Amino acid sequence: MKLFLFGLFHFFLGIIMWIPLHPLRRLFCKIFMKSFDGSSAIYRNVDIRAPYKISIGKYTNINKECVLDGRGGLTIGNNVDIAQQVNIWTEQHDYNSPTYESISAPVIIEDYVWLASRSTVLPGVTIGKGAVVASGAVVTKDVNPFAIVGGVPARVIGYRKENAIGYKQHCRAWFR
Q1: Of 170 and 88, which is predicted with more confidence?
Q2: Per-residue pLDDT reduced to its tens digit, 61-83
Q3: What per-residue confidence (pLDDT) applies to 172?
Q4: Helices and strands, number each (H, E), in the chain
Q5: β-pairing, 74-76 with 54-56?
Q6: How far is CA 110 from CA 49, 114, 115, 130, 167, in A?
Q7: Contacts of 70 (CB under 8 A, 6+ apart)
Q8: What is the DSSP string of 106-167?
Q9: Which residue has the higher pLDDT, 6 or 79?
Q10: Which one of the listed residues 10, 22, 93, 170 is annotated catalytic?
């Protein structure tokens, strides 16, 4: 019965995240997430798992078709830009387990981080303030503040200027 109710909740969650009315999605996030600031934007077709373990700060944009996995705990800071089709995982299978057990670890994304399109963040990673993750990168280890990482697995390819942050993101279109 527990699995049925969980599946039913996830089904309705998918419908709500598909509806093209941002105020309705924002209301859902405020009700069901651990914390969600009303200044943030969450676009259509975002796959949210265990919203009650997800915290999202101020002026954060989460673009369409992302995966936010809260099962292991997910904290997203202020002024974070998450581009479309980004996957953030907090739980995965233990490939060395004879029973293929699930293992989880929290993911922390600090303030002013930019996760570019189709990047992937794996369980247990902290992405430091002002860091940039390039398109298609797979982040398997912590990223230092202001580092720019890319590749599979992600490696440092540069550094962002520390004075490049301080902005506030504003992008809450009604029907996106």
Answers
A1: 88
A2: 999 999 999 999 999 999 999 99
A3: 60
A4: 2, 19
A5: parallel
A6: 20, 10, 11, 8, 15
A7: 34, 48, 49, 50, 51, 52, 53, 54, 90
A8: -EEE-TT-EE-TT-EE-TT-EE-TT-EE-TT-EE-S-B-TTEEEETTTTEEEEE--GGG---
A9: 79
A10: 93
| 91 in Cβ contact with 110 (< 8 Å) | no
At 101, give phi and psi (nearest 5°): -60, 155
Q: What 8-state DSSP symbol labels residue 54?
A: E
List all residues 6 or more positions away from 49 whose beta carbon is below 8 Å from its beta carbon. 10, 67, 68, 69, 70, 71
- Provide the pLDDT for residue 57: 97
Is 9 strand, coil or helix?
helix
With a pLDDT cut of 90, the percent of the chain lying above it is 73
Q: Using CA of residue 161, residue 164, residue 165, residue 170, what is the dihedral sign?
A: negative
How many other β-carbons are positioned within 10 Å of the β-carbon of residue 142? 13
Query: Contact, 169 vs 79, CB < 8 A?
Result: yes
Cα separation of 14 and 68, whole Å? Answer: 12
Q: For this structure, is 93 an active site residue?
A: yes
Token pair for 92: 């995965």
Handedness of CA 119, 121, 58, 173 (dihedral sign): positive
Nearest Cα to 69, choosing from 141, 118, 124?
Answer: 124
State the Cα–Cα distance between residues 110 and 101, nearest whole angstrom: 29
